[in-house]
Structure formats: C-alpha cells, structure tokens
Amino acid sequence: MESDAELVRQTRAGRAQAFEELVHRWAGRVVALCQARVRQAHVAEELGQEALLRGFRNLHTLNDPERFGPWLCGIALRACLDWLKSPQNRPIRFSELDPDLDPDQYLPASADGADAALEREDDRRRLLREVDALPDECRQVLLLYYYQDHTYRDLAQILGVSPATVNARLTRARKLLRARLEACRR
C-alpha cells in the first residue's frame, strides 16, 4: 500500500488515479469532520466534496506531502467556517417562523404500547441532540472516532494533536455525553 505522500507525488506527476485513492482514504474522515462542525449531514457531504476539490486544485501548495491528511482537514475546516459565516446559512429556529406555532403538534403522537423501533428512534434523536450540544473539540473527536473507527494515532494526525490529547478529548466527551443523557432520563 502506497503512502499518502507517494500518492501526492504521483498526483502531482499527472496520475489522476492516485488522487482517487487519496479521496477513498480521506473522504469519510473529511465528511465526519464537517459533520462535527456544521451539524447537518447533507451540508457536511457537500462541504466534504468542496474540501476534496479544493485540495485537488491546491495540491501544488502542499509543502510536505507527509502532512497531506492534516492539510486536507485544515481545508475542510476552512470550508466549514466559510459556510458557517455566510448569512444565508444561519439556522432559523422553528419559533422564529411563527411564535404562535407549537412544534409538538407536528410530532406524531405515541400510542400507549409504543413500538420498540419508535423508542429507538427517539433515543437516537436524543443522543444526536446531546452530541450536537457538546463543545466543538469534544463533538469533533467523538464523531470522527465513531464515524470512522480509527485509532487514536490516526485521529491525532487528522486533528494535528498528540494521541494523549485525543484520549483526553474522547474521555471528556464521553463523560459529558453520559452526564447529559443521565440528566435527560430524570
């Protein structure tokens, strides 16, 4: 298996398939990073694609091919920040649409013997809501870890921190998430 650095060199030499391999290796991580930042799956997909395209177009600016992953993740974070700064992308709260509307009236009423699938979906939504409420660095490392199932060393390279920092962030994220979920159950 060729290293990222070798694939960068091959891409610069005009071998497009080399960049396809880099996309295959990094697309999931880039999208997970974007998801952690913008908190919208469909937007994260688009921003991930944008980051990969920017990476391809600007590959000539990469000074150290060994640092391709962190460089690409930096591009993805900048794409997310650009998107977040755009006034047209400001989230609109349901209450801003019409303060007299009750959002609960649009949720399906649960029957007395609620179906297990409906309960699982409620649990999943609650979990995602609580993950979204975590501080950025905790949410980011948690989503990257569980989306991609990478080692701490991989995450350290992606985030540009040490594996010990990844461990500390994951530990903190899990602790915060556990506490938030316990508070929801009360």
Give the tags.
186 residues; elongated; single chain; Arc Repressor Mutant, subunit A; Rna Polymerase Sigma Factor, Chain: A; 9 helices; mainly alpha
Arithmetic mean of pLDDT: 81
Shape: elongated
CATH class of the largest domain: Mainly Alpha
CATH topology of the largest domain, what is it called? Rna Polymerase Sigma Factor, Chain: A
Would you kindly provide a written description of the structure presented here, covering whatever features stand out?
The chain has 2 domains: 4-88, Orthogonal Bundle (Rna Polymerase Sigma Factor, Chain: A); 120-186, Arc Repressor Mutant, subunit A (Orthogonal Bundle), CATH 1.10.10.10. The chain is mostly helical and 186 residues long. The chain contains 9 helices and no strands. The termini are far apart.
Summarize the structure.
The chain is an all-alpha fold.
Explain the layout of strands and helices:
Blueprint: H1 4-12, H2 16-38, H3 41-57, H4 68-85, H5 94-97, H6 116-132, H7 136-148, H8 152-159, H9 163-185
Helix pairs in contact: 1-2, 2-3, 2-4, 2-7, 3-4, 6-9, 7-9, 8-9
